[in-house]
Amino acid sequence: MMANDPEIFMQTPLAIWVRTFYDDDGKPLDFKQLCDGVFLHNVWLQIDSQPTFTGLTNPATDLTARLRNLNNLVHNIKAFYEEVLEQVLVMHLPNIITIAKAVYDENSEQELGRLLLLMLGCAVQCSAKGRFIEAIRRLDLATQAELAQYIASLTDNPEAVWTRDWGQLDALPEPDRPRLYAALVQHVTALTKQRDAAAQR
What is the tens place of the pLDDT at every residue in 165-189? Predict the structure, then answer.
């Protein structure tokens, strides 16, 4: 459900989580700071101190600079899932153009939420996950429960992330095989439609 304004969005579980990285200097973290890629870049460096794609424009006062920052961030997230976690992102990547416009609406809320979700998934699976999980445990119980659901929507959902183990039939528990097979067929069907649509352009 869409929040009514940026301030309400900043009280959602994903925004509360990312605020645990914020060094409060008396000025609260706001929606636009999440859209320029600068703060989120610094968050990412705590998750992955040696990112594949480097470079940061700070301050990112124009659309081009924000796009550059967010593009590097999304590429780093994708590389981390594939190269470190050995997982393939199946879900749509965040639309960085929508985020970089820094205009609050339903679309920017959805895309920024998707970006924060992917970062959360990396944080709780990286080598420093103990520190990040401990920070989550210091949040209120309702927020913890909602974040746990977000995490499960990635780690236990073949429509979002496909793990290496799911590619090995013999390693799969028998009850999970029909569900994962159905998800695989769905992915192949979607890719075929995308290929055909691209061929008509």
Answer: 655 555 556 665 566 556 555 655 5
108 & 14 share domain: yes
What would the DSSP string read from start to end of the chain? ---SSHHHHTTSHHHHHHHTT---SSS---HHHHHSSHHHHHHHHHH-SS-SS----SS--SHHHHHHHHHHHHHHHHHIIIIIS-EEE-SPPP-HHHHHTT--SHHHHHHHHHHHHHHHHHHTTSTTHHHHHHHHHTS-HHHHHHHHHHHHHHHT-TTTEEEGGGG-GGGS-GGGHHHHHHHHHHHHHHHHHHHHHHHT-
If asked whether residues 88 and 28 sit together in one domain, one would say yes
Q: What does the alpha-carbon distance between residue 86 and residue 149 come to, in Å, rounded to a whole number? A: 22
Residue 185 and residue 91 in one domain: no
* pLDDT per residue as tens digits for the range 9-60: 999 999 999 999 998 777 889 999 999 999 999 999 999 999 999 999 999 9
Q: Is 1 a member of any domain? A: no
pLDDT digits (tens, 9 = 90+) for 79-103: 999 999 999 888 889 999 999 999 9
Contact 102, 32 (CB under 8 A): yes
